[in-house]
Amino acid sequence: MLVKSYIQNFLNRAGGHVFLATLISRLFSFLASWFAIQFIPNKELGIVLFAYNIIAFLIPFSGLGLHQSLIRFGALLKTTEEKNNLFSYVFKKGLLISIFIVTVVIIFALLFPFQFDKTGIYLAFLALVLIPDFIMQIIKIQFRLQHKNKLFSYVEILNSTFLVLFVLVLSYFYKENGYVTAVIIAPLITSFFFIKKLNINFSFKVKPSIIDFSFWKYGFYSGLTSVVTNLLFVIDILLIGHLLNDSEMVTAYKYISIIPLSILFLPRMFIAADFVSFTEKISDKKHIFNYTKSYMTLFTTVSILYCGFFYFFSEATLGLFDESLIKYSDSFFILSLGVCGILIFRGLFGNLLSSIGKIEINYYINSIAILINVISNYYLIPIYGIKGAAITSAFLMWFTGIFSAIWFLYLYRKMYDNE
Questions:
Q1: What does the pLDDT look like over 59-68, one tens digit per residue?
Q2: How far apart are CA 211 and CA 47, in angstroms?
Q3: What is the largest CA-CA distance in the chain?
Q4: From CA 240, how far away is CA 246, in angstroms rounded?
Q5: Element (H, E) at 97
Q6: Is residue 260 part of a domain?
Q7: 122 assigned to some structural domain
Q8: Count of domains for the chain
Q9: Residue ranges making up the domain that contains 401
Q10: CB–CB of 60/299 below 8 Å?
């Protein structure tokens, strides 16, 4: 009954549109990856992916994490004018910070002696994606704050459509250079399409009253948390490239991890629709308890079905990408088991920690996980290859999820038991 009510509430907040948009986004991301591997030689694609994974963990830190401050603190504001004023502030400050970060990355990329040829050049160009991606993220967040989840969904759909079309056309004609270009221009064009729909007065110069040290601190820790979280996903790629010195192994691991990581769209989809709502009701212990119980029941069921399917069909699934990937089916299934720890625990409790203003706990947990990741992979990758990286990642997905749950329950009781 709780699960049924949970899903119904999700649908009432235009969750159906969010689901469709997220599904289309995942599908088109899959297609973009498939097109890339068809048109770009594995060696060159591996180098591009190596460079992109460096950018991937920096993307959430563009704007110093102010987009995360926008959604949490924006949810506390009552009027549309206040929320629009806050958006204008975040846009201007975040854009300047993003430009600075891009400049630093480009200088680093052109000076650092990478193992693979052209890595620095690809990294320098891919750094440009930080700017349009930041703008697109705050546009989506503003729609969520306005309870316009349909428009939020349309941003996702249009960006995904542009991405898959540009990857198809540009990768076919220009190979890896076309792929890099597609990744940059898709969010840029999407942002131009939607920013006018927000009706923001950018000339408004009064500093929002909600801006204080805690606003910047929250954004900073959100950025750090997102960086270390993404690093947990990409550090395997980086260490495989470093320890095995084989760009084709980098490509193989990237592709066997696509489906396990793509299933994470499910918790993100629910959180995208629900974060503003449960943040507004965070002090209501009964509401949070029911929400948590319903969420965990739903995603435990999803995890069982997901792992059951790939226990039997791992090889057939990898064969859709490339026959050469079938030999990595064990690593694929290990990663599939690992993501269940995120589905059941971390996707929920990591966001609940953010909702109560304890985003730094996520940062500390994930930072510890990174240390474990590096130590473990330096031992396991030389022995077991990419299976060693899969084992480490799977363990850490459960480790971070369970510890997030423990910390949230402790802090929540401490903060609200007397209310």
A1: 888 888 899 9
A2: 42
A3: 64
A4: 8
A5: helix 80-111
A6: yes
A7: yes
A8: 2
A9: 225-419
A10: no
Residue 236 and residue 359 share a domain: yes
Only one residue has tokens 């910390």, namely 407
Contacts of 365 (CB under 8 A, 6+ apart): 400, 403, 404, 407
Non-local (6+) Cβ contacts of 42 within 8 A are 247, 248, 251
**pTM for the structure as a whole:** 0.80
Extract the tokens encoding 40.
Answer: 């770009």
Domain membership flag for residue 191? yes
Which two three-digit tokens encode residue 67?
Answer: 């987009």
Task: Give me the DSSP letters along 186-218.
Answer: HHHHHHHHHGGGG---TT--PPPTT-SHHHHHH
Last residue of a domain, one of 153, 185, 211: 211
Handedness of CA 367, 370, 372, 378 (dihedral sign): negative
pLDDT tens figures, 214-258: 889 999 898 888 778 877 777 888 888 888 877 778 888 888 888
The answer as to whether 12 is a domain residue is no
Give the type of residue at 311. Answer: Y
What is the C-alpha R_g of the chain?
A: 21
Tokens of 211: 């801006």
Helix (H) or strand (E) holding 181, with range, is: helix 149-194
